[in-house]
């Protein structure tokens, strides 16, 4: 039902009630002036009783009748406003011109106290420095079930296990070569790349022992598909290679990628996203079925040393040149910086189940960043120890 119908109905009901009151007032003996009929009634019984009943009723009718008239008029006015809203707007405009715009006044008592703001900002901090002293940290992987991050130290050729809650760290494996990246299979093994040695290496996390899976020249970026294959990016050859983790058999997926490609992430739907660390800062989309590739986006003056996918159409990438974390929309390549101040950052991992992003840098720092905090306009700004 429209507002116009409501006001029409309201006016009609009020008018009907008004007419009934008028009829009652007209037809009732004694209504109006005290008539001969009233005088005759009063002569037959106690005059005081008659006046209390009859005249009191007449007084009530005298009140109700104009009331219904006002309701009827109000309904008509409301209907006119609905039919012609410009009249109301015009009246409001005139009132505003006459009285001026509202002038809010905020006193000192209304302002939040500095200590309250400080507490609020502390409670809503979107990042935390978990630990330091991790060497020349490049590759990074996280096991949320164990509350543990695995950080590759390229300079120390070792893999460190870090408890996220406390920052406590220990060496999980040694002698892993020139480590470029590390990933976990969720079954007790980690896989890492050895750039200088041109190898894909498997690490038993329970014993710390390691073994070579396959030789991949220039091996740097790494991703696991969860179905028994690793995808390795060759930094020196611009090639994407699939490696069977059981047999070590290799298949070339894509060639012609630029020298300096350094990262790869899989969407689980037949596409890989390859980042370019050097000479351009491009992010490529690669079709795993035929190796077809295209530039999805470019980070001018930056790099895409690492790439991780959120699973909902977005990616995070690190710009190690400027210490920034980017968010990229895969549908159109739109990009924005969501965190800065990360120094020469080269390790990136996501814990999407708990909404956390982890970043490591060559200064040996491990950062935890709230994924929710990055969604705000402007992201979290600059992280500071």
Helix content: 25-40%
Tell me, briefly, the overall form.
elongated
Q: Per CATH, which architecture of the largest domain?
A: 6 Propeller
CATH class of the largest domain: Mainly Beta
**Strand composition percent:** 35-45%
Largest sheet: 4 strands, antiparallel
Series of secondary-structure elements, N-terminal to C-terminal: HHHHHEEEEEEEEEEEEEEEEEEEEEEEEH
Strand order in the sheet with the most strands: 1-24-23-22
The total tally of domains equals: 2
Radius of gyration: 39 Å
Mean pLDDT: 82
Number of DSSP E strands: 24
Tally of alpha and pi helices? 6
Defining key terms:
385 residues, alpha+beta, Neuraminidase, 2 domains, four-stranded antiparallel beta sheet, 26% helix
Characterize the structure shown.
The chain is an alpha+beta fold and 385 residues long. The protein folds into two domains: 3-94; 124-374, Neuraminidase. It contains six helices and 24 strands. It has helices spanning 3-27, 36-44, 47-83, 85-99, 114-123, 371-374; strands at residues 127-131, 137-143, 148-153, 158-163, 169-173, 179-184, 189-194, 199-204, 210-215, 219-224, 229-234, 239-244, 250-254, 261-266, 271-276, 282-287, 293-298, 306-309, 314-319, 324-329, 335-339, 345-351, 356-361, 366-370. The strands form six sheets. A four-stranded antiparallel sheet has the order 1-24-23-22. Helix 1 (3-27) packs antiparallel against helix 3, helix 2 packs across helix 3 (47-83) and helix 3 (47-83) crosses helix 4 (85-99). The longest helix has 37 residues, at 47-83.
């Amino acid at each position: 039902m429209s507002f116009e119908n409501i006001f029409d109905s309201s006016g009609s009901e009020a008018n009907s009630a008004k007419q009934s009151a008028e009829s009652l007032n007209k037809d009732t003996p004694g209504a109006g002036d005290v008539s001969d009929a009233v005088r005759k009634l009063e002569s037959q019984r106690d005059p005081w009783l008659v006046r209390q009943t009859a005249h009191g009723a007449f007084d009530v009718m005298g009140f109700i009748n104009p009331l219904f008239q006002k309701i009827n008029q109000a309904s008509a006015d409301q209907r006119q406003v609905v039919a012609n809203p410009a009249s109301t707007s015009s009246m409001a405009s005139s009132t505003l011109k006459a009285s001026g715009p509202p002038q809010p006044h905020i006193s000192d008592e209304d302002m939040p106290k500095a200590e309250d703001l400080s507490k609020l900002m502390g409670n809503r901090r979107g990042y935390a420095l978990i630990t330091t002293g991790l060497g020349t940290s490049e590759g990074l992987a996280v096991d949320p079930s164990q509350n543990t991050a695995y950080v590759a130290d390229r300079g120390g050729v070792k893999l460190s296990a870090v408890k996220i809650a406390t920052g406590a760290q220990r060496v999980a494996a040694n002698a892993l070569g020139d480590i470029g990246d590390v990933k976990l299979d969720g079954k007790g093994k980690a896989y890492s790349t050895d750039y200088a040695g041109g190898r894909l290496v498997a690490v038993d996390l329970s014993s710390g022992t390691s073994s070579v899976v396959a030789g991949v020249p220039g091996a740097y970026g790494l991703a696991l598909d969860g179905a028994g294959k690793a995808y390795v990016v060759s930094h020196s050859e611009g090639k994407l290679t699939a490696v069977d983790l059981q047999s070590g058999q290799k298949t070339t997926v894509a060639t012609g990628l630029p020298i300096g490609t350094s990262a790869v992430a899989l969407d689980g739907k037949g596409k890989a996203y390859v980042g370019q660390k050097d000479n351009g800062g491009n992010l490529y989309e690669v079709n795993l079925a035929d190796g077809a590739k295209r530039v999805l986006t470019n980070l001018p003056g930056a790099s895409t040393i690492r790439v991780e996918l959120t699973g909902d159409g977005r990616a995070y990438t690190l710009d190690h040149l400027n210490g920034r974390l980017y968010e990229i929309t895969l549908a159109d390549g739109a990009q924005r910086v969501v965190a800065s101040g990360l120094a020469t950052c080269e390790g990136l991992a996501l814990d999407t189940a708990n909404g956390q992003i982890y970043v490591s840098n060559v200064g040996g720092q491990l950062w935890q960043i709230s994924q929710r905090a990055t969604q705000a306009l402007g992201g979290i700004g600059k992280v500071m120890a």
